[in-house]
Amino acid sequence: MIPITRLYVGQEEADAAAEAVLSGWLSVGPRAAKFEELVAEQVGAKYAVAVNSATTGLHLALAALGIGPGDEVICPSFTFIATPNSIRYTGATPVFADIDERTYNIDPAHVEQLITPRTKAIMPASQIGLPADLHALKAIAREHGLHLVEDAAPAYGATIDGVRLGTISDITVFSFDARKILTTGEGGVVTTDDAEVAAKLKALRAHAASISTLARHTSTAVIAESYDEVGFNYKMTDIQAAVGVVQLGKLDHVVKVRRALAARYDELLAGNESLVLPHEPAGFGHVYQSYLVRLRNHTRIDVMNAMAQRGVATRRITACHLEPVYHAGADTPSLPVTERVAADHILLPHFVGLTDEEQDEVVAALNAATA
């Protein structure tokens, strides 16, 4: 079976993890601090805060902004379920917006229509590695006094006009899950240029303790921490961070390979009139965490099953507003573009290490299934 992804890790990551294990410090500590420093430098942000997943990073970001019950946060439905879940964790309400038919990212015009006095933030998802229209969304957020909290889970290294994601939005959250651009197994990082927000993030990820565990451990005097509010246990371990430090050094290569694979898919599939291929707007740097195609006049489950029978894995993205946990019966919003795209797309195998022979087989399986 050609998998949807394959890990790009090796001896260097194994050695880094082993060194962390043998160091005697496993929880969030010096390696996590180094990882944060390198992420901030790489994306151009003033602050980076490592967490144990992008999901918790999104929750933490909203909590740091004081978003809670009675508030609304606008987000796409065409995204991983973690996006709206993170909003619900705070007690706030996710309000689903439709997407652009070409980019599959949240539609700024629809976002503006959904703003109410209860709206406190906009949470775009830079879907499958392509940045959302952040400048348009930022202008809307500024006009209405809202926060822009970006779910950039699959888009580490992506750019707009040559600027990497991580500084355009007020807060940006990246994932280092096993299927993402870079990985720490599980893990995430939150970036911001706001010193007050960064301090709040660091406190809240560790039960809101007034002094970190590492600071207490390395102090030559007795320090008693205090807890002034309810926090969370969202820390990244130093083992994960050690792997992350190695992975960060591979970013340029990973993005280059993923873009080359996408270009090769574009070339090989160009003659298949049953497909709609990805679109990359001018000035936007797609990192292709996934390669998404839409199907014309074919049933998705049939295509996916046919490809599976030929040994090729595929996946799809959910329309969250139609999932049982968010479906509201007659009150479920109508999102026509989201519903069309959610019904007729598939994700193809796409990862560093995918060989030409494997990619040729993916294409052959897809062409046969859509003939």
From TrEMBL:
Keyword Signal recorded: no
GO molecular function list: pyridoxal phosphate binding; transaminase activity
The name this protein goes by in its record: dTDP-4-amino-4,6-dideoxygalactose transaminase
Catalytic residues as annotated in Swiss-Prot or TrEMBL: K180 (proton acceptor)
Cofactor(s) needed: pyridoxal 5'-phosphate
CDD domains associated with the record: AHBA_syn
Pfam families: DegT_DnrJ_EryC1
Taxonomic lineage from the root: Bacteria, Bacillati, Actinomycetota, Actinomycetes, Pseudonocardiales
The keyword Disulfide bond appears for this protein: no
Superkingdom per UniProt: Bacteria
PANTHER family: DTDP-4-AMINO-4,6-DIDEOXYGALACTOSE TRANSAMINASE, TRANSAMINASE
InterPro entries membership: DegT/StrS_aminotransferase (IPR000653), PyrdxlP-dep_Trfase (IPR015424), PyrdxlP-dep_Trfase_major (IPR015421), PyrdxlP-dep_Trfase_small (IPR015422)
Family note: Belongs to the DegT/DnrJ/EryC1 family.
Keywords attached to this entry: Pyridoxal phosphate
BP GO annotations: polysaccharide biosynthetic process
Residue numbers of N6-(pyridoxal phosphate)lysine PTMs: K180
